[in-house]
Design a protein that fits this description.
Keywords: FAD, Flavoprotein, Lyase. The chain is α/β, with parallel strands linked by helices and 409 residues long. It has 17 helices and five strands. Strands 3-2-1-4-5 form a five-stranded parallel β-sheet, sandwiched between helices. The relative contact order is 0.13. It binds flavin-adenine dinucleotide.
Length: 409
């Protein structure tokens, strides 16, 4: 068993500090090389902590700017902002996630009914396709819960264009195993490779590129598709308005809900001091198929760590559970603690947001308001994530300035 990263803020911050010397020009030069399992030191490996917000994007960017300045660390800062871009984009086109959820559920049914599809799928996820690099990455993903970005691109491309498997099943395989499994980055990453994100523009994995960036560990010459015709979909995904934060609601007695979407509760700007605290996870809800123990363990541990910090910071008792029905669980907890408000960090599109949306009505019917707090970073970045990344990329200096992250300050 590979050692997994520790799901605590302390471990994330220590990892960030240790990576800092390599976040400048070194990162720009070496970030595309996948040196293999256990040898990913040229990229940060910060994604499990960032995804669960044990460590926050502005913290990473502030440290990076302090160590290198924007010019030398431009590439690393841009990569961190890609996460904000995908979250903002998905937030404004939520039908992409709904269609993906629907299609994964249908495909899970087809896996039961169609032996041919099942056999091809099993060969892919169990690393038995005969394409050495692909089989190794399938194994690395299951074993470690991580893949290098370039390997994710090659893997998704081979899955779609060489193995001709449905992209949604590949995205689901990632989401079930990645410790950083994220509805926005993952779904949109797969759609980008398949030509559904930037319409008509696909990513073709090429043997010479794989040989170069794996330093000759792999060379699948003659084994890969030589063309990548874009996938097509009938549905349009209209642009929706961004969420209005629930700022107007001022509860008398409010509790704090910590979820796997945001595990830094002590840094939230809350409308009231919490008198109780509860931690909830929705990790199993990432897929109709089983989510890996490692991904569940990381998310659960991240929430436990956040609860402990929140309890110390706010001087309240914290409790944790994994209920299916968040409406009933939150209502019971609100009643037991005499709450008229339930506060939580804004949950972007995904299983947590689905459960919170279902709980909102139950709570409202019983006089308890649900208050979601949008972080300033998201509020500033998301409006620029309506089209391609370039639009947000142009805003990076302004975002840095607005967040007070410039090292000269
Ligand atoms: C098909 C596919 C699926 C993906 N699925 C996920 C996913 O489920 N969860 C996830 O966090 N990332 C996903 N990514 C993005 C990216 O591969 C990972 O964020 C990155 O490899 C994490 O490793 P790192 O922390 O060492 O990255 P670094 O190279 O050190 O980058 C620093 C940080 O920038 C952010 N970042 C870097 N590249 C991207 C990117 N392309 N998109 C969004 N954010 C990025 C991450 O927060 C990362 O931790 C996916 C990419 C592809 C192509």
């Amino acid at each position: 068993m590979a050692a997994h990263p520790e799901p605590t803020r302390e471990a994330g911050l220590a990892h960030l500090s240790a990576f800092m010397p390599r976040a400048g020009r070194n990162y720009a030069r070496l970030r595309n090389f996948d040196f293999g399992p256990g040898r990913h030191a040229q990229v940060s490996g910060l994604s499990p902590w960032l995804r669960h917000r044990l460590v926050l994007e502005p913290e990473v960017i502030a440290q990076t700017l302090g160590a290198h300045g924007l010019s030398a660390a431009e590439k690393f800062v841009q990569e961190v902002v890609w996460r904000s871009y995908f979250k903002g984009f998905m937030e404004q086109r939520p039908s992409i996630w709904q269609a993906y959820r629907r299609d994964v559920a249908a495909l899970a049914g087809r896996l039961e009914a169609e032996p041919g599809l099942r056999a091809d799928y099993d060969a892919a996820v169990n690393g038995r396709t005969g394409i050495d690099c692909f089989d190794a990455w399938a194994g690395e993903l299951v074993e470690t819960g991580y893949l290098h970005n370039h390997a994710r691109m090659w893997f998704a491309s081979i899955w779609i264009f060489t193995l001709r498997l449905p992209w949604e099943l590949g995205a689901d395989f990632f989401l079930r195993h990645l410790l950083d499994g994220d509805p926005a980055s993952n779904t949109l990453g797969w759609r980008w490779v398949g030509g559904l994100h930037t319409k008509g523009k696909t990513y073709l994995a090429r043997p010479d590129n794989i040989a170069k960036y794996t330093e000759g560990r792999f060379n699948p010459a003659g084994q890969l598709a030589t063309a990548a015709p874009p996938l097509r979909e009938e549905e349009e995904h209209p642009l929706m308005p961004l969420p209005e934060p629930d700022v107007a609601v001022k509860p008398q007695r409010a509790g704090l809900v910590v979820t796997e979407e945001d595990c830094a509760p002590e840094t939230l700007d809350l409308p009231a001091a919490p008198t109780a605290e509860i931690g909830l996870t929705a990790t199993a809800g990432r897929s109709p198929l089983p989510v890996s123990d490692a991904a569940c363990h990381f998310a659960h541990g991240a929430v436990s760590d956040a609860l402990a910090r929140g309890a110390a910071h706010f001087g309240v008792e914290g409790q944790q559970s994994d209920p299916e029905d968040w409406g009933a669980a939150l209502l019971n907890w609100a009643r037991a603690n005499d709450l008229d408000g339930v506060m939580t960090a804004y949950a972007p599109v995904g299983p947590v947001a689905e459960r919170l949306a279902a709980a909102r009505a139950t709570l409202a019917e019983n006089g308890v308001s649900l208050i979601q707090i949008l972080r300033p970073w998201d509020k500033a970045a998301w409006p620029h994530a309506t089209k391609g990344f370039f639009k947000l990329k142009k805003q990076i200096p302004a975002l840095i300035d607005a967040a007070g992250l410039s090292p000269s300050r």
